[in-house]
Amino acid sequence: MILGLLFYSGLRAQDDVSDLSTRQPLNIIIASRIRTFDAASISFQAQAGIQKIFHRRRLYLVYVNGIEEAAARIEKLMKKKNARIKNLWFDSHGYFGRRVALFEVGRDEVNYQTIYEEHIRKSLQRIGKYCDSSTIVSLGSCYSGATFILAARDSFPQQRMNGDSLMKSISEVLGNSMVYASPSWVMTKAFVFGNSYALAGGPGAKKFHDPLLIQAWETVGQWTAYHANTQTFSPMSTVAMDGKGNIMVKPKPFLNTASRFDHQQRVINNLKPGNYSPKWFVKYRLPKHYR
After folding, report:
1. What is the pLDDT of residues 28-60, one digit of tens each?
2. d(CA 124, CA 174)
């Protein structure tokens, strides 16, 4: 009898990692709670909230203060709905001044190094129980797929962005999922959820019109996919989302039109040194979640 109970409890303990193919597929957006005025985050979250009204059975928004809260809330949702994750979008800013590919989940910064910190890795693994090779994960932060090398400057040594290392590590902890990330900017324009090019383009702020960001301007609208089955990276067209939160790939790249390409070239030809101040550089090895 005791052995029977232990066997039964063992089966119950494995419920969370049972065959995901039988579970309801859900699309999840993880977004940090807004603490200060942030036009881009407000716009994205407002548009996502509207879509949630019309697709409440398929699209779920998870607002969090940190990665452990994200794991707990997603775990609870997946159990309640007997669901799996079909599409997972991390809504976040990237920071060129940190000189490393990253995304934020509330107060926690995830980059190719911090992902190995215990509370971050364990939290992602909890989410990963509901992901598999059919899951698409998109790192919705600027420069999250960047691999370019930034030259030494002042007290900062030469540094590689390591977006590829971040993407590969994310795939490993999230069920060998397909991971998308961009080496350039991820924008928030109107109709983000209209399967449009609203996520592509470059910022108009003066500080970004500096030769330091030339590689980001050269790759505007480009994305990269990491394939876990072959452990390879491949360039891809511009990423978009539809109203249900499905992560799509546009058939033609953002720069395929003459007007967009001409604008990109004008910007590149008019980049001016000094627009991006050295004071915005910070040590990447001191991530924001260190208090």
Report:
1. 999 998 888 778 888 888 888 888 887 878 999
2. 7
Global confidence as pTM: 0.90
Retrieve residue 205's tokens: 């702020």
CB of 64 closer than 8 Å to CB of 30: yes
Residue range 145-158: average pLDDT? 91
The sign of the CA dihedral 197, 199, 205, 208 is: negative
Tokens of 289: 């979640």
> How many whole angstroms separate alpha carbon 146 and alpha carbon 148?
6
CB 108 within 8 A of CB 67: yes
Altogether, the residues listed in the chain come to a count of 291
70 has pLDDT over 60: yes
Three-state secondary-structure class, residue 245: coil
CA distances (Å), 35 to each of 31, 40, 97, 98, 259, in order?
12, 13, 21, 21, 37
Q: Where does the pLDDT of residue 10 fall: very low under 50, low under 70, confident under 90, or very high at 90 and above?
A: very low
For the CA atoms of 187, 191, 192, 197, what is the dihedral angle to 10 degrees?
A: -60
- The residue among 284, 286, 289 whose CA lies nearest residue 101 is 284
